[in-house]
């Protein structure tokens, strides 16, 4: 179990990542390729990733080089998921390359003690070797993660909307308690089901929450307690599956003033009942409108208990920018690539 100890100052410094963390998405997606656990939740992505990687030099490199240094194991080298990635993929890559060699050597030794590190990993103390590793990470991201960026971003934005509402309704304690079924808030300690038993004392540094599209089952934290505290956690019911192929009838059904008004009403997110009140229609009618919008890939619907919150996808937001507004009516299995 991981026990995260908060002070009053830490509660005031809880914050959430504003966008998907690209290096954590790379890491967690590599884990999805290394195990069959939870694969059903990523079935479409998994099929596409396998198609891209199988029988290619990139697939061989991923299996032989990336799996060993980012294994689905109790320990991962922290320098491969630097906080600078919050400013974008290239900023994160630059931080990896700039990591002090002494730190790299120490973390590779810890990886070797934990699950075994490949012999070549010792060369990562050399800047040139880290630059080569970054090239491979960039190629993997471009081929396997980047094509799904819109749905990943839509899912993270939906999670942020849910968390914002939960914080307003229940406070920071409610936010922390609702992160995952594997998390429990017993003030001032956040208990997390974890692969190792440890205590993390925030000591006024606060906690950065990073919702991850590819994270599965339980949260992840950095191993080095001296680094800026972070908790990566899986989305709960907010993973956006992507738009379905629409038939002509569905496209025709999408047109109309009421549905356009519904789309505009979801800019800041709304529940089904809130949308029904805004449009002046019954909840059943509002549900019909959100179903059509969701099937068109314009919104994402996230269920928490008895409430469904609807938010725009990037495609839905882009449609509003392009279209004049309408007035409302009212276990580990290594993949063989």
Would you kindly provide a brief summary of this structure?
By secondary structure, this protein is of the alpha/beta class. It is 47% helix and 14% strand. The protein has a four-stranded mixed sheet, with helices on one face. Strands 2-6-8-7 form a four-stranded mixed sheet.
Strand-helix topology:
Layout: E1 2-5, H1 8-11, E2 14-16, H2 22-33, H3 43-53, H4 57-69, H5 89-97, H6 101-114, H7 127-145, H8 149-177, E3 183-186, E4 189-192, E5 198-201, E6 207-212, E7 220-221, E8 230-234, H9 248-254, H10 257-265, E9 270-271, H11 272-279, H12 283-295, E10 299-304, E11 307-312, H13 314-322
Which structural traits does this protein have?
single chain; 337 residues; alpha/beta; Arc Repressor Mutant, subunit A; four-stranded mixed β-sheet; 13 helices; 11 strands
Provide a descriptive summary of the structure in words.
The radius of gyration is 22 Å and the shape is globular. The chain is built from 13 helices and eleven strands. It is of the alpha/beta class and 337 residues long. Helix 2 crosses helix 7 (127-145), helix 5 (89-97) runs antiparallel to helix 7 (127-145) and helix 11 crosses helix 12 (283-295). The protein has helices at 8-11, 22-33, 43-53, 57-69, 89-97, 101-114, 127-145, 149-177, 248-254, 257-265, 272-279, 283-295, 314-322, and strands at residues 2-5, 14-16, 183-186, 189-192, 198-201, 207-212, 220-221, 230-234, 270-271, 299-304, 307-312. A four-stranded mixed beta sheet has the order 3-4-1-5, covered by helices on one side. A four-stranded mixed beta sheet has the order 2-6-8-7. The chain folds into three domains: 2-16 and 152-234, no CATH class; 22-150, no CATH class; 248-322, Arc Repressor Mutant, subunit A, CATH 1.10.10.10.
């Amino acid at each position: 179990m991981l026990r995260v100890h908060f002070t009053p100052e830490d509660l005031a410094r809880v914050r959430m990542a504003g966008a998907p963390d690209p290096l954590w998405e790379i890491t967690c997606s590599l884990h999805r390729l290394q195990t069959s656990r939870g694969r059903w939740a990523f079935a479409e992505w998994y099929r596409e990733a396998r198609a891209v990687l199988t029988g290619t030099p990139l697939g061989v490199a991923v299996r032989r080089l990336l799996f060993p240094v980012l294994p689905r194991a109790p320990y991962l080298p922290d320098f491969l998921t630097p906080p600078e990635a919050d400013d974008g993929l290239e900023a994160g890559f630059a931080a990896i390359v700039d990591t002090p060699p002494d730190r790299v050597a120490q973390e590779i030794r810890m990886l070797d003690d934990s699950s075994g590190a490949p012999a070549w990993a010792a060369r990562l103390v050399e800047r040139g070797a880290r630059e080569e590793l970054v090239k491979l990470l960039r190629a993997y991201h471009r081929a396997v993660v980047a094509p799904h960026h819109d749905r990943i971003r839509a899912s993270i934005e939906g999670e942020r909307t849910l968390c914002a509402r939960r914080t307003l309704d229940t406070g920071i304690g409610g936010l922390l308690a609702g992160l995952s079924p594997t998390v429990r808030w017993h003030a001032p300690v956040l208990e997390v089901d974890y692969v190792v038993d440890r205590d993390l004392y925030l000591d006024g540094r606060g906690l950065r929450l990073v919702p991850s599209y590819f994270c599965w089952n339980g949260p992840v934290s950095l191993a080095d307690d001296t680094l800026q505290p972070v908790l990566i956690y899986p989305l709960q019911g907010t993973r956006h599956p992507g738009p379905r192929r629409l038939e002509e009838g569905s496209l025709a059904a999408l047109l109309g003033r009421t549905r356009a008004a519904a789309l505009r009403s979801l800019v800041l997110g709304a529940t089904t009942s809130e949308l029904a009140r805004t449009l002046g229609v019954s909840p059943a009618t509002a549900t019909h409108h959100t179903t059509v919008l969701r099937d068109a890939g314009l919104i994402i619907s996230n269920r928490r208990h008895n409430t469904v919150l609807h938010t725009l996808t990037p495609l839905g937001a882009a449609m509003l920018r392009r279209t004049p507004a309408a007035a409302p009516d009212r276990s580990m299995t290594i993949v063989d690539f």
